[in-house]
Amino acid sequence: MRRIDSGPDPVAAVPPPPPGTPPRTLADLYNDHRLRLVRLAVLLVDEPTTAEDVVQEAFAGLHRNWSGLRDEAAAVAYLRTAVVNGSRSVLRRRRTARDYVPPHTVTARSAESLAMLSAEHQAVVDALATLPPRQREVLVLRYYGGMSEAEIAEATGISRGTVKSTASRGLDTVAKVMAARASGR
Question: Where would I find the RNA polymerase sigma-70 region domain in this sequence (predicted)?
């Protein structure tokens, strides 16, 4: 823990305890300073519940570092600094959340473009139906299933070379069938 200089503090000077009094406890500091610290935090973060959370965190930090403090004045200075820093963190998180711009989302397609896309998909499905079963299987696994040549070879029980040549022949046939349908033959 970094020790805070306990020089004069005009905002909240804590007089030294009278001689012969027992040392103050964390509970005493909490009872004496919590409300003032919450008011300070409310002025910084504009939300009472968030301000109370900030002050609670400051007291939790003081509790963790209680053995390293010199005196009550250092404890109050520690709390005040922790509240200000905690409030700054809250404001920084708010600003980050406010400035966040979600990634660009794709706009919805028009009904016309969906109909055309559906017609194109149907043409591809019709062209696939004309293929021999092995070619259709390889093309479906590759382009609709997103599988690699090695995965297709393993799934179908054929070699990678056969997968490559079968896919090539299938694509050629699909292209010819779609071109013939587009030209009206």
Answer: 29-95
**pLDDT tens by residue, 36-59:** 999 999 999 989 999 999 999 999
Residue 18 resides in a domain: no
- pTM score, two decimals? 0.46
Whether residue 88 is found in the same domain as residue 142: no
Q: Are residues 81 and 42 in the same domain?
A: yes
Q: Cα–Cα distance between 79 and 19 in angstroms, integer?
A: 24
Answer for the pair 78, 69: CB distance below 8 angstroms, yes or no: yes
Long-range contact pairs involving 172-181 (C-beta distance under 8 Å, separation at least 24): 173/127, 173/130, 173/131, 173/135, 174/124, 174/127, 174/128, 174/131, 174/139, 177/126, 177/127, 177/130, 178/123, 178/124, 178/127, 181/123, 181/126, 181/127
Note down the domain range covering 55.
26-99
Token look-up 């519940």 returns 49
